Amino acid sequence: LSLDSQLDAPEVLRLLGEQVSFPITGGTSFTYPLTEHANDISAVLSILTLDKLEFALTVSEPLDEKKCREQVKATYADCRAKLPDEPRLLIVLMPHIPGFDTDSFLSALFDEAGNVPVFGGVTTGDLVSTKAHVFAENTAYKDRMVLLALGGDIRPVFAVGSQLTELTQYGPTVTEADGRIVKKVDGMTFCEYMQRLGINPEDRVNGVDALVQYGPLPCRLHHKLDDDDGVPELRCISFTRLKDGSAAFSSRLPVGTRINMGSIQKNDVVESSERCLNEILEKINQRENRDYQYSVLLAVLCIARYFAMLGGENLENTLLAQKIPPELVVNIFYGFCE
Description:
globular
């Protein structure tokens, strides 16, 4: 279930629970990407069923960064115990909680799950986060992780679409940081780095203003060669603080990470969407998958893409609606992280 954050999530789940007998999972989205108009209010329910497919749904205890590994271990163990064999896919959803280190929970989940592929994201609310929820059974949660494990006859394929123009050929290295807060890069404050690029930072607190200003200006992370899996990793600025020149990011940036600020334009969003969709459709149609019928397409779109599209929000909607084959059941939401 993808639910517009302007709707009353607990009430919608209560009403759905009176109508259906199967478990519901999903989350809220700032807006739904496949409506006719970008800001239409929507609730999208996709029903997944297959005789040879096993489902296991588990919700964590209220998330606590200090108990990260214990909570993830217990949640995964509970989910795994509900399946007769190893899961073939994990779908994880977490609500946006300002200042929360999502990376720690994902890292712990990867350690527990081993080679099981993981897909999911951090659900969005009204951009103040008070309405960001995840769903499990007939309950909406603001502070828990939901884990859906799928086993049986499933062959998941994946594609990642990302495109930005890096503002310089070679970016600086983080030299002082505290979790999500980057204080200095190459010995200068992060705000000084932005000014060198011709960007004037302002005192911004989490919210719409920061997303509008900084959403289209993410930083690409450049890892050491042995850490690079080929998937571009981006971090968006949550806010800047002029008093000490620091910047807060959507997730932690360790000291030693080389970063490069980039710019996302409307054409970047559209081109990366088309390339990503073409890639996933090509994988579906590969020779080794011709004996297998794909029927579901799940996607998470970074909320920064929406703000890069201001004034042309329907461009990505229209492309996806035109290119996605009608035989595929589609469910998409905007996420703070994906």
